[in-house]
Design brief:
The protein has helices at residues 57-65, 73-96, 131-141, 156-166, 227-238, 242-247, 252-260, 264-290, 324-333, 340-352, 359-365, 384-401, and strands at residues 6-12, 16-26, 30-41, 101-108, 111-112, 119-121, 145-146, 153-155, 178-183, 187-193, 196-198, 213-214, 297-298, 319-323, 376-378. The chain is α/β, with parallel strands linked by helices and 403 residues long. The protein folds into two domains: 6-157 and 384-401, 2-Layer Sandwich (Nucleotidyltransferase, domain 5), CATH 3.30.420.40; 174-378, Nucleotidyltransferase, domain 5, CATH 3.30.420. Strands 1, 2, 3, 4, 7 and 8 form a six-stranded mixed beta sheet that branches. The chain has a five-stranded mixed beta sheet with strand order 11-10-9-14-15. The chain is globular, with a radius of gyration of 21 Å.
Length: 403
């Protein structure tokens, strides 16, 4: 079916927005990236605050819970750059595609406002409670006609799952139960259970997002599976900031290669990464099978305790997907002694020593007493969030219009 509009997906992150035109391959069932890609860095725009410090996370959470969110002047200045970047990306994609009418989906990290069109809590950036309104108003002034208002600012993590479900090469396709961990600037969690990609708001009573969990030393578990976090671990060990490492082009792939060359700080970094990656995946396995087991503390000490029972118990994952830059790292490290073998040993130890996994689960995850690495799938779908954002917008539009 031909449509008189261009479908666009926007993936918003901590430093930039990444936008793509999308193609509909099978009506409502399969999608692919189009030909036009526009990336806009927030720092490109006037007023960007280079060393912006987000409001304390606990204060953000408190104001969100009390429904009394008042962004500061500095947040509003920074938000202007975030919003302008999204507008420019959409505008340029539309113009390059010679399209006047667009259907737009946007994914952003953070907790959304009650109407799902703003951002109420953002760990690494400004709160933007009127995000969608501002984008729509600016696009209208630029002469871009939107088929329908932005239905919601979705979770970039959920959109990773939607991308994996609807892209022809996605690893959610053809399985019933799966977990996706994307390690980019931050960590993205997605779940497919009983054949459906589940928004994590529906499972928050028992499934805890990676960024919410603490290592017990004040750091989010996100630190150990995200690109910026791995940089920070290495930087702490050698007395360098993340910005200094970035200026020297030292990112996780370079740190990994330093570890292979015998750099002790790099090896210590990946010892932490392998331990917490394995512990995180083990937590996912046990929480699905037997409910929350208290393997981690929480960044927010006031977070309600998760349940140790839920309707999906006694289920195993058909696969576990590792995506984005963390997936690239694991792919490069497959079979090595720095990342892959230690990760395998840790997974085996955690699972075989678990008091809550019965023989059925043990034999499934560790046949012959060794973790089944065939369950780990490395996603090459780097644009899953942008793809998922556009797909979700289309599915919402289609539901309303019965197309």
């Amino acid at each position: 079916m031909q449509h008189d509009f261009l479908l666009i997906g926007i993936d918003g992150g901590a430093t930039k927005v990444n936008g793509w035109s999308l193609r509909i391959l099978e009506e409502g069932r399969a999608f692919a990236l189009g030909e036009v890609n526009v990336t806009k860095s927030y720092r490109e725009f006037e007023g960007y605050i280079e060393n912006f410090q987000p409001i304390d996370l606990n204060r953000q959470l408190s104001e969100w819970e009390e429904r009394k969110i008042i962004p500061t002047e500095l947040e509003q200045r920074q938000a202007h750059c975030y919003i302008t970047a999204a507008v420019e990306a959409i505008f340029q994609i539309a113009r390059q595609s010679q399209a006047e009418r667009v259907l737009v989906g946007i994914g952003m990290p953070g907790i959304k406002t009650a109407d799902k069109r703003g951002i109420a809590v953002l760990k690494n950036g400004p709160r933007m409670i009127d995000y969608a309104d501002q984008i729509e108003n600016k696009l209208r002034r630029l002469g871009i006609q939107m088929v329908t208002p932005i239905a919601e600012i979705g979770s970039d993590a959920y959109y990773c799952g939607i991308g994996e479900e609807y892209a022809s090469e996605g690893y959610f396709r053809g399985v019933t139960n799966s977990y996706y961990l994307g390690g980019g600037t931050g960590a993205a969690d997605a779940l497919k259970l009983a054949g459906k990609v589940i928004p994590l708001d529906e499972t928050k009573g028992w499934f805890v997002k990676t960024w919410e969990m603490s290592d017990g030393e004040g750091h989010s578990v996100e630190r150990y599976v995200s690109s910026r976090g791995i940089q920070a671990i290495y930087g702490d060990l050698i007395g360098k900031t993340v910005d200094e490492l970035g200026a020297a082009s030292i990112y996780p792939p370079q740190i990994y290669r330093l570890a292979l060359q015998g750099d002790s700080a790099a090896q210590a970094t990946f010892a932490k990464v392998t331990f917490y990656l394995a512990k995180l995946l083990f937590e996912r396995i046990t929480s699905l099978y037997a409910g929350w087991q208290g393997l981690f503390e929480f960044i927010n000490p006031n977070r309600p305790a998760p349940a140790n029972n839920h309707k999906y118990q006694r289920i195993v994952f058909d696969n576990i997907i590792i995506g984005q830059r963390l997936g690239d790292l694991l792919l490069e490290a497959r079979g090595d002694k720095i990342l892959w073998e230690p990760f395998t040993r840790q997974m085996t130890d955690f699972i075989c020593q678990s008091p809550v996994l019965d023989d059925t689960a043990l034999n499934y995850y560790c046949p012959g007493g060794l973790f089944n690495l065939e369950l780990i799938k490395i996603s090459r779908l780097r644009e899953a969030p942008a793809l998922g954002a556009g797909i979700d917008a289309y599915l919402n539009w289609r539901k309303v219009n019965h197309a």
